[in-house]
Amino acid sequence: MDIEIKILDGVKLEAKLADHTINSDQPKDGGGEGTAPNPFEYFVASIGLCVGHYINIFCKQREIPTENIKITEKTSRNNEGKMIFSIEVKLPSDFPEKYKDTVLKAAESCAVKKAIQSQPVFELKLV
Description:
By secondary structure, the protein is of the alpha+beta class. It has helices spanning 39-61, 100-107, 111-117, and strands at 4-7, 13-17, 20-24, 70-77, 83-90. The strands form two sheets. Strands 1-2-3 form a three-stranded antiparallel beta sheet, with no helix packed on it. A two-stranded antiparallel sheet has the order 4-5.
């Protein structure tokens, strides 16, 4: 996947990938206008969105309604400064009992989570 990043006015950025444009900004206390999430917020949100995607696909394949499923992501740091991503999935009371464990296994398939866990290599170079 190729993504083109443009530096815009102030501290705003624009990423173009495929047919999509993603805009970012910094909060007002960070020198921005707060018009869009900052890059780190997009990163954190991508984890919860990915978990939600896998839960959604799991439920759709089994014709389980998804409108009352609530996914909450919280981030914190432990004593060593490592980030902790805590994702809570609240299922409605009528969610089929036989699928409760397997829906979490589906969420574990999140590609973003797997990419982070594989400790990717980052290359930064001037050309």
